[in-house]
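Why predict the complex rather than its parts? Because the way molecules touch one another can change local conformation, and only a joint prediction can capture that. The input here totals 229 residues.
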Amino acid sequence: GAVVSQHPSRVICKSGTSVKIECRSLDFQATTMFWYRQFPKQSLMLMATSNEGSKATYEQGVEKDKFLINHASLTLSTLTVTSAHPEDSSFYICSARYSLQETQYFGPGTRLLVL
Amino acid sequence: GQQLNQSPQSMFIQEGEDVSMNCTSSSIFNTWLWYKQDPGEGPVLLIALYKAGELTSNGRLTAQFGITRKDSFLNISASIPSDVGIYFCAGRAGSGGGADGLTFGKGTHLIIQP
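Output of the joint prediction:
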């Protein structure tokens, strides 16, 4: 149990375009999903917390207008990188949490390369 | 913000050796988690700790939640080649029922020499 998927696994886009990444909890309902970013050889940094049916909470320094998060159902959250630039190239990882438990289960990540 | 100091940064060991790594924090955490991440993949949960003083095992892995709630360690006994990877500690400061994200350590890169 506790499987989280992400799509796509990798994406290459041109600078200025927008990219949408999906995160799905496959076998449980996740009232809360989290989005992290990981640059090469670095740790995971929390970008935002996404609660089903409400606005996402963004960490300090993360632009909410650039990284649009939608959590429309208990099994799906999406992250849209708008007007992507080369510095947005990174490994984006989502996680999902059972409603009453502490543990977060991570997706396999999405590698974004902006040319 | 909260920071986790994870050490060592990397370890070069022989197959069969035991491994120990730890994380410390300047502030209290209510949950400690240990993850393993292989290249190009998301972190996989190894052990979750929810109570101060808790000692939990998962096969050859053992982790403890420090009594001060500011530290945790992970031990791996009798290492094997598939243990290679990056190990992250992660802490959550919020109380039960909250939706706080995790704060991650910088990782320990485990390399096993044949």
